[in-house]
Amino acid sequence: EGPESFPPLRNEAAVRVLQGRMKGIQGHCNSCYMDAALFSLFSCTSVLDSMLFMPFPLCDRNVQGILRDEIVNPLRRTGFVRASSVMHLREQLTDKGQCSSFTNAEKDPEEFLNLIMQQILGIEPLLKLQSGGQKEQECYCYQIFMDKQEDLVVPDVQQLVERSFLSSDLKLVEIPSCFIIQMPRFGKEYKMFSKIIPSLELDITDLLLDSPRECCLCGDVATLECS
């Protein structure tokens, strides 16, 4: 008999299970970066469920079991995950990683994703990016970098991704199976945006390398691209 699985929460079920007090992933000891990442990756989407079940080549089954049985399944079943479950995962990551501070320090979500996806589960990179015609880079998530833009007061994710790709001269080499995006960072002292509106769908047509696109003047297939 295989491990138990619960489907991601959708529509009315998501509201019913996840809304209200004592819902979500309980924070403890600078865990917010991991809590937010885990909630985003698993609560309402199954696109990364292979992380929970697949026997990858390097896969640490203990970490995989904790992730599935102590975090994702309770989140989808009851809408709540105890801080002790996340700490159990953090302790395992500290044992497996090169870094001793996963249990107490605040980290960058990208550091957590790279450790769990690459070193512990052995998943192939999810994204292939190319900058200005240089060699393509492979990565697991994309962090939005951009200067403060006065015309964007309450941006949506679509605007931020497009402007960030434009300012870094980046293109997606291929359509990604999963596109994990980290919003512009902020700390206690400074927030670039007070709010960001989630884009429920992301149009990546203009972000793809060598993708045929229509000319904005005549409607035929474009031959040149102006930034």
UniProtKB/TrEMBL annotation:
DNA-binding listed as a keyword: no
InterPro entries found in the cross-reference section: Papain-like_cys_pep_sf, Peptidase_C19_UCH, USP_CS
Gene Ontology CC terms, in alphabetical order: microtubule; spindle
GO biological process: protein deubiquitination
Keywords noted in UniProt: Cytoplasm, Hydrolase, Microtubule
GO function terms (MF aspect): cysteine-type deubiquitinase activity
Keyword hit for Flavoprotein: no
Predominant location category: cytoplasm
Cell location: Cytoplasm, Cytoskeleton, Spindle
Residues of the Peptidase C19 ubiquitin carboxyl-terminal hydrolase domain: 24-204
PANTHER family cross-referenced by the UniProt entry: 40S RIBOSOMAL PROTEIN S3A
Name used for this protein in its record: CYLD hydrolase
